[in-house]
Structure formats: C-alpha cells, structure tokens
Specification:
single chain; 199 residues; alpha/beta; Nucleotidyltransferase, domain 5; 5-stranded mixed beta sheet; 6 helices; 15% strand; disordered C terminus
C-alpha cells in the first residue's frame, strides 16, 4: 500500500518525470497534490502498471487531484542544458501550474533544485512509495506516450507508437537506415558505435 504523505504539510506535492532515457521526443514531468482522503489501491509506479491500467488511472487522477500540472521539455532544450537539467526544469514547470501552491515537494529520485522557497525532499524509488509521486509518474508517462503516438504519424518508420523513443534495437536500426529527425536528441548517443573508445 502506498503512503499518502511524507511530511506534515497538508499541501504536499509529488513530482516525477518520464522519457529521460529516450533518444527522441521530450522529457515530460507531472506534479500532483491529493487531499488527505484520496486513496486508490491500483495506483503504483507507472513502470509497474500496464498501459491499459495507466490509461484508466489518468482520468481518475485528474478528477481526484486537488491540482495537477504536466510539462514537456523538448529535444532542442535537452541538447542545450542536458537531460538532468531538462528533467528538473520539466518538474519545475509542472509544479508552477499547481493551484493551490504546494507547501512541500517530494521528488522521485535523488536530484532536484529548489523552486522558490518551497521545502522539498528527494526520495529514491519514491514512485513506488507515495501516492502523489506514483500519480505524477502515471501522468508524465501517459502524456508523453500520447505525444509520441502523435509524432509517430509523421515518422512511422521509427515505430515510436511502440517504442516511445526509447533505444530499442528496432529504433536504432531505423536511425541507422533513415538517419535522425528533428525530434531526436542530438546530444545523446543515438547509435552504439558512438560509444566505442579509441584506445
């Protein structure tokens, strides 16, 4: 059973991102605040849930949350500021959409930067411990997947509908064959041979 709150603050927000390890598309983050009465026995870290479960949870989270925000940071900005900074920026952008403003933030992972004067804590595997972070992980994943499905129509040969921009064998083969698109992250190692060291 996931925990409701980490702090003693009423307006505690959970935040998480999706798409950090992808070769194409945005990194997407979400932030969620629930009331103290919210409960859901299915909600978990989005990676532990099937696509159909995530899709069914999305409207429940949006309906039951006191407030939520979702933000994309796109590949050009990822290439400029690096993926860690882009992930934190996406989280900040999703948090600034919240009304009421959170009194405390819990973040999945171990890296974050202060946003204003709001106290925060980073929690390793927070998305499998706290309802609000799990909900943020589900929203980040479903919104990002929906975006990847849309751009799949533009470049079907990369099969983003299936791989969502992650570095699958098929995605790498398509890059080898067709080159890269405007949605690819140019700062990433897009093909394994880029990794080889000249010793």
């Amino acid at each position: 059973m996931l925990l409701k709150n980490h702090s003693n603050f009423v307006l505690e927000c959970g935040t998480d991102e999706a798409g950090r390890g992808c070769l194409a598309g945005p990194v997407t983050a979400a932030a969620v605040i629930f009331s103290s009465t919210f409960n859901n026995s299915i909600l978990n870290d989005s990676k532990q849930l099937s696509e159909s479960k995530r899709d069914s949870l999305k409207p429940i989270i949006e309906l039951k949350a006191l407030t939520f925000g979702v933000a994309h940071v796109f590949q050009d900005e990822i290439d400029q500021i690096n993926i860690l900074n882009a992930s934190i920026l996406a989280m900040h952008q999703s948090i600034t959409q919240l009304t009421p403003k959170p009194e405390f933030i819990i973040v999945d992972g171990n890296k974050f930067k202060p946003i204003g004067d709001i106290p925060f804590e980073t929690i390793i595997k927070g998305d499998s411990k706290y309802l609000s972070i799990a909900a943020a992980s589900v929203l980040a994943k479903t919104y990002r997947d929906a975006f990847m499905n849309t751009i799949h129509e533009e470049f079907p040969m990369y099969n983003w509908k299936q791989n969502k921009g992650y570095p699958t064998k098929e995605h790498r083969e398509a890059i080898r064959k067709y080159g890269i698109t405007k949605y690819h992250r140019k700062s990433f190692r897009l093909l394994p041979e880029q990794i080889k060291l000249d010793i």
